[in-house]
Design brief:
Elements: H1 3-6, H2 18-30, E1 36-40, H3 47-59, H4 75-82, E2 88-92, H5 99-108, E3 119-124, H6 131-142, E4 148-154, H7 162-166, E5 169-172, H8 178-192, H9 198-208, H10 212-225, H11 228-233, H12 237-246, H13 249-261, H14 266-283, H15 296-310, H16 321-346, H17 372-382, H18 387-393, E6 396-402, E7 405-410, H19 413-419, H20 422-436, E8 441-446, H21 454-464, H22 468-478
Parallel strand pairs: 1-4, 1-5, 2-3, 3-4, 7-8
Antiparallel strand pairs: 6-7
Helix pairs in contact: 3-4, 5-6, 8-9, 9-10, 12-13, 13-16, 14-15, 15-16, 17-20, 18-22
Length: 480
């Protein structure tokens, strides 16, 4: 038997998440146990274990239960622990999610328990139930038979309909703290007489990311494989942080690649970097000590870029690419700012308007000519961030500056409405700010399409050649 199953908590006092232990403890001691619970929280935090303990509390045959705890010795407790009790049913909503499944369940709950005091239905991954299935379950949750209890477990409570949530007692399972995971691991270490130092336990905790199940599985690997894999899976941050401090992009990318080649998950690497940057950001306001020499501005910018890139890892064809792009953009942005400052110093005596290949920018002035290179550069920067937005932009044109606003002419009203959405507008303003080296606010006006002269048609082909699929993709994204 694996450690996770063998050392699963068997009593309320053994639950390692303090808030859950206290909440369930108070409910059980009160003697008034609700007929419907919602256990919500991340994977591996003990939701199913807590549900089984609650089922034992309800069905324990011991006449004298100390503090209303299950005895774990009677037939009911033993069968629930082993998962063989016919009156305690565990359903996987991912594979039993339809209305017919719930209708069948609704008919069965009316029957009395075969041998236990009460029937307990533990519905795992409850958020996978269809809307129709949830509605079919509502009446039973609202007025369940006296002998029936429901425990819904989910990692995504927000996906359950509001009427289901309102009819259940919520027990919130948060990611386990380091101390709570250490408590769980040390219980196993003592029982199995495993020789392992605290430093290695700390490494397991860091890799497990708040999951008891993952931590225990890692401990099993240490016992069977030794400590070698821990070093491989542990993030090597020291060299990477030094490279970030020195803004050495080659070294940064090399360190990222080295960590990935050593078996570190890109998501874990990104979260570890965010952890360090967050600690440094808190240090800038007097909480804790600062570990790097990055300025507050640098920390804020890097944290923002990393958070944006976090979700892109799942859809990227090359898993580490979003992380690499974060630092390429950040270091590149710093270099561009430095070059811009040098250019301003060198050209401070130049006549107004002589700014090389850049667009002339100034308050209450307009762009004096459509700089095709800059517009293409803007589109190229938008595309990897969001191809749908870039496709919409190609149905617009650059008009110029009106005060502090950069004005774009949009050919279609619907496109204009999509571009004006707050999230989209923020993305475009950030990119425009980086390219034009000035805080940009975008404004959109409806504009007539350019006349389809021969010359214009030729130009359009150059700019949009091979891009029809992007337009179709944008339409698909907009209309889901």
């Amino acid at each position: 038997m694996t450690f996770y199953l063998e050392y699963r908590p068997k009593n309320i006092d053994e639950l390692d998440i303090t808030s859950v232990r206290e909440s369930l403890g108070k409910i059980i001691k009160s003697g008034h146990i609700p007929h419907a619970f919602l256990f919500a929280g991340p994977k591996g935090t003990g939701k199913t274990s807590a549900a089984r303990i609650l089922a034992k509390v309800i069905n324990c045959e011991a006449k004298l239960k100390i503090d209303k705890k299950p005895c774990n010795k009677c037939g009911q407790c033993k069968s629930i622990t082993s998962g063989t009790n016919i009156d305690v049913l565990e359903m996987d909503a991912a594979s039993n999610r339809g209305i017919d499944d719930i209708r069948a369940l609704r008919d069965v709950v009316k029957l009395s328990p075969a041998s236990a005091l009460a029937k307990v239905y533990i519905i795992d991954e409850a958020h996978m139930l269809t809307t129709e299935a949830c509605n079919a379950l509502l009446k039973t949750l609202e007025e369940p038979p006296e002998h029936v209890y429901f425990i819904l477990a989910t990692t995504n409570p927000e996906k359950l309909i509001e009427t289901i949530r309102s009819r259940t007692t919520l027990i919130s399972f948060q990611k386990a703290t380091n101390e709570e995971i250490i408590r769980s691991l040390k219980r196993i270490v003592r029982a199995e007489k495993i020789k392992i130092i605290d430093k290695n336990l700390d490494s397991i905790v860091k890799i497990s990311k708040g999951s008891f199940r993952d931590a225990v599985k890692l401990l099993e690997r240490v016992v069977s494989e030794g400590l070698g894999f821990l070093k491989a899976e542990s993030v090597n941050l020291k060299s990477l942080l030094e490279a970030i401090e020195s803004r050495d992009i080659k070294k940064i990318l090399s360190e990222i690649s080295s960590n990935v080649q050593n078996g570190v998950l890109v998501s874990n690497l990104m979260e570890s970097i965010l952890d360090e940057l967050r600690s440094d950001l808190l240090a800038t306001v007097g909480i804790g000590e600062k570990n790097t020499n990055l300025s507050k501005t640098d920390l804020l910018e890097l944290i923002r870029l990393l958070i944006q890139a976090h979700d892109e890892i799942k859809i990227s064809p090359i898993e580490q690419l979003p992380l690499e792009l974060v630092f390429v953009r950040w270091v590149g942005g710093m270099e561009e700012e430095e070059e811009e400052e040098e250019e301003v110093v060198e050209n401070q005596n130049m006549e107004e308007g002589e700014v090389g290949d850049e667009i002339e920018i100034g308050k209450d002035t307009e762009v004096k000519k459509l700089d095709e290179t800059t517009w293409k550069k803007f589109l190229a920067a938008v595309k990897p961030v969001n191809a749908s937005i870039e496709a919409l932009l190609r149905s617009s044109k650059l008009i110029g500056f009106e005060g502090d606003d950069l004005c774009l002419g949009v050919y279609y009203k619907f496109h204009k409405e999509k571009l004006e959405e707050l999230k989209t507008k923020k993305i475009l303003e950030d990119i425009a700010t980086q390219i034009l080296h000035r805080k940009i606010c975008l404004r959109y006006n409806l504009s007539d399409q350019p006349e389809k002269t021969t010359e214009a048609v030729t130009e359009t082909v150059v700019l949009t050649e091979g891009e029809d699929e992007d337009i179709i993709k944008a339409a698909e994204d907009i209309f889901s």
